[in-house]
Specification:
The chain is an alpha/beta fold. The protein has a single domain, classed as Metallo-beta-lactamase, Chain A (4-Layer Sandwich), CATH 3.60.15. 22% of the residues lie in helices and 30% in strands. The strands form 4 sheets. It has a 7-stranded mixed sheet with strand order 9-8-7-6-5-1-18. Strands 10-11-12-13-14-15-17 form a 7-stranded mixed sheet, covered by helices on one side. Helix 4 packs across helix 6. Bound molecules: zinc ion (ZN).
């Protein structure tokens, strides 16, 4: 079995299920009233980033956003012999669920390795100790025997006999992309939190993903939202240049530089302010933008399993 499990694919923060809108009352007292407005994301989900790749008898867990409750649970059910964990970077929405990872609390846990890129000046051992071993932050310490390794993005790793390439990504504080070669020699790239705004970054990205079978890439913003011409949903228009996120135009410009474009593209890091109607519309716009490439594109959703074997046979 080879599959991609999506635990959470919301970017920035957990999407609130409802918001309060201040409106004018019909009567004079009180003159203003709070009205509840649902933010329906039933389809795409609310939890922050976490992915799992299950490849036969091993599993790779990428990022510890709140979706790790789902990925950790799925990994446990698949009963892999070994599990390795990777961080893309250390922004809150990618580490805030670390203490909820069920794999940490089993003495017989298959989670044996934790790979941390040297980005943002974070010291991985310190992060582990502060987040998980300090009872002021969380009452229970991990029970697993997990070794922590750090590496410079760009390094090549071999984990459980799988070749893994890594890449430094353009993001405030920097982030790391992963290209994992599966047991059947197909490859999957996880590239979340990357702003592909310049020809230099687009070229590097294209080189990294060229010829991959599956690509998980972030695309949080429309061009107008990125430039600050319009707001996301009803939020005020704010330029988000340099905030570390990409638009469909940037993804297209990057993939056009590949000699062999990835066969399937999955989009992640859905802005926490969007509802599902807006996300569906944005997915349609993304597909139209990438139409010239003639590839399959879809937005990921929470608690999704993507059967990589099935996709391969298409
Ligand atoms: Zn980030």
């Amino acid at each position: 079995m080879r599959c991609l499990i999506v635990g959470g694919c919301t970017g920035g923060a957990v999407a609130p299920a409802r918001r309060l809108k201040l409106g004018v009352s019909r009567s004079d007292t009180p003159p203003q009233i709070w009205m509840q407005r649902d933010l329906d994301r039933g389809e795409f989900g609310q939890l922050t980033t976490s992915f799992a790749i299950i490849d036969e008898d091993v599993a790779f867990l990428i990022d510890n956003g709140l979706g790790v409750q789902i990925t950790g649970d799925a990994i446990q059910q698949a009963e892999p012999k070994q599990v390795a964990m990777f961080q893309s970077h250390y922004h809150y929405d990618h580490i805030e669920g670390m203490h909820l990872n069920p794999l940490l609390y089993r003495p017989d846990s298959p989670l044996t390795q934790f790979f941390c890129p040297k980005v943002g000046g974070v010291v991985p051992n310190q992060l582990w100790n502060e987040r998980l071993l300090n009872t002021s932050h969380w009452p229970i310490a991990p029970k697993c025997q997990t070794s922590i390794y750090d590496f410079k993005p760009g390094a090549s790793l071999v984990v459980f006999d799988r070749d893994i390439l890594t890449s430094l990504q353009n993001h405030p504080g920097e982030s790391c992309g992963y290209r994992i070669q599966l047991s059947d020699k197909k490859s999957i790239v996880i590239a979340t939190d990357v702003e592909l705004s310049s020809a230099y970054h687009q070229k590097n990205f294209a080189r990294f993903v060229d010829g991959a079978d599956f690509l998980v890439v972030e695309c949080q913003l429309r061009e107008g939202e990125y430039l600050g011409k319009v707001g996301v949903m009803d939020s005020p228009a704010t330029p988000m240049i340099g905030w570390g996120h990409s638009t469909p135009e940037m993804i297209l410009a990057s993939l056009e530089r590949c000699s062999e474009v990835p066969k399937s593209v999955f989009v992640t890091h859905h802005d926490s302010r969007r509802d599902q109607t807006d996300l569906r519309n944005f997915e349609g716009e993304f597909r139209s933008a990438l139409l010239p490439l003639g590839i399959d594109c879809s937005f990921l959703y929470e608690a999704q399993d993507v059967d990589l074997d099935e996709l391969e046979s298409m």
